[in-house]
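Narrative of activities, Objective 1.

The group set out to show that a structural description can be obtained from nothing but a protein's sequence at a throughput compatible with the screening campaign. Below is one input-output pair from the validation batch, recorded exactly as produced.
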Amino acid sequence: ATQLTVPVTMTLSATTLTATPGSLAFTLAANATGTATQAVQIGGTGGLTFAAVSNQFWLAVSPTGGTTGGNVNVTVSAANLTPGTYTGLVTLTGGGATTNIPVTLNVTASTAPILTPTNLTFQYTPGMAAPAAQTVAVNTTGSSTGFTYEVQGGNWLRVEASGSTTPAVLTVTVLPVGLAPGTYRGTVTVRGTEGPDVRTAQV
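Output recorded for this entry:
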């Protein structure tokens, strides 16, 4: 009898998950009102479903999942961050594979005005003394800068500045005598002279 042998070969390929680019770097001014976003292409085993998560409050990824061949957007925000270098990770997982995308955020000093506090409340009872004045501090995280301010709301709202460059103090006074009972709202808008940033305090 004749015996024939048929070779059989099986190749097992490991699941792969890749990110291009493999790392990201951003630069934003401290307390910047905007965000910055970069796209990352996700590759690897075809049709692989993956999940994406970030590990820092200033770092976000969207969408938080998908399939290979698509993109995710990585977004950073410098809101409430002081100048310095911050690092984080976006982690991709799927099919037993894991890929980390290191993210670096360089936060630079800003000349944009920072107001503290941003909300003021006054209460007045007719026949009583007018409420005491309150103050709003105007500062920056960078070097001193000039600013202007605008008051909106009505003649019942007065603001005086201790100067026109940071650091400075805005003294806010209300004049309620003669006003009908009710709630009155106004704003104090501060604009830095060295950039487009605008800050508003609510009264």
